[in-house]
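User: Predict the full complex structure for these chains.
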Amino acid sequence: MTHLSEEQLILYYYGELASDELIESHFADCPSCREDYRQLQRTLDSVDYLTVPELPADYEARVWRSVQAGLDKPARRRWLFSWNPPSYVAAGVTMVLLIVAGFLLGRFWPVSAPEVPQLSRNEVRERVLVAAVIDHLDRSQRALLELLNSQANGQTDISSEQAMVRGILEDNRVIRRNAAAGGQAALADVLDDLERSLLDIVHSSSNLSSAELAELRSRLESQSILFKLRVISSQLKRRQDDAARELARRSS
Amino acid sequence: MVQMDESDAITISLARDGDDEAFRTLVERHSRDVFRLAYRITVDQQDAEDVVQETFLRAYRGLKRFQGHSGFGTWLYRIAVNCSLDRVRRRRPDSAYDEKHVELDSAPDSATQVSCTGESPEAALLASEVRRQVASALRELSPLERTAFILRHFEGLSIEQIGAILGTECNATKHSIFRGIRKMRRVLAPVLGRTP
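Assistant: Here is the predicted structure of the two-chain assembly.
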């Protein structure tokens, strides 16, 4: 018997199929697909737990006030352009206004503008890179935790975890090479260790027995990779906070 | 989803002619829907409020270009989705879907559930954990997958309507939803039980 695909079950759940008959008659004969659907239903129903904050009774009026404040500028502009003289008169008046404005600006504009803290290109690049590395480390930790915490019941299918890890592995190679090229040896070392752990996961069989899963976990734990990731991640976060404080200090 | 009825059509026509009171009616009629959508995409109340304001400002400026082919709701949602995605992309990667924020938000709900439904503290705790995990699962989705999923699941839009909002073909829209759900199932499996 050909089982129903996950896609068919999803479309059935959302009532997107032209006819539900095929699915329902299949369910009648196939406990496995019924169970798959029950699991899918459970996941999708659980998403409804994500609630939206209650809004105050006068929310609409508040929104209008804030929108109206934003409409002020175009409204004034409309008033200005509602004056509709012949175009050559308007062009002449505009020219005179521009000349006068230019003269006044040149006369009264401060010679040196007040200093506004600016980030240099290198600082901006550094900030973006740090944020990207922190995100990568967080994703890696989540993926490893997922594997370390997965329940071993007989055969465990880790193909979805492996798919996630493959994506992380590609990013890891790029970030590790950049870190090494940028002289960040400590970070490059940790990423090197992480790469080995990720490769270990990717190269494992997708279906692991309880013993094999325990062995994989034990290898990952023995490398203390999670601990190393946490340490380097917290160091980077501290660096990020210091940079933010420095910028605030420069602006005050 | 926000629907355009006959009174919307009249109001839009007046607003397009510069009647601010008519535009106010549109803002008041649709702001809650737009907030709900923006909140689900950004999962941040402040961001969602900013998105609502930005959406209506963009709508005001673009009203003259609105031809009515796609329906006012679809048009407004398209603006709101773009504003929300801009917000999400502008954020630091690790600040999107702040789990602490979700937990704080969920606390009063759990308490309400206990007192209203007589749920045990364990059940309330589980609900709170599921909520936290759902937020975390949504975080795994790409912005496009997340938005397509939210529009399908919460807003009840058809694949065709979602494609019109996101500017994607029917198959690409479907696949964004499928991929999103697959990722969510994987992340939620430890909390809810067996994975597919």
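The first helix of chain B runs from residue 6 to 16.
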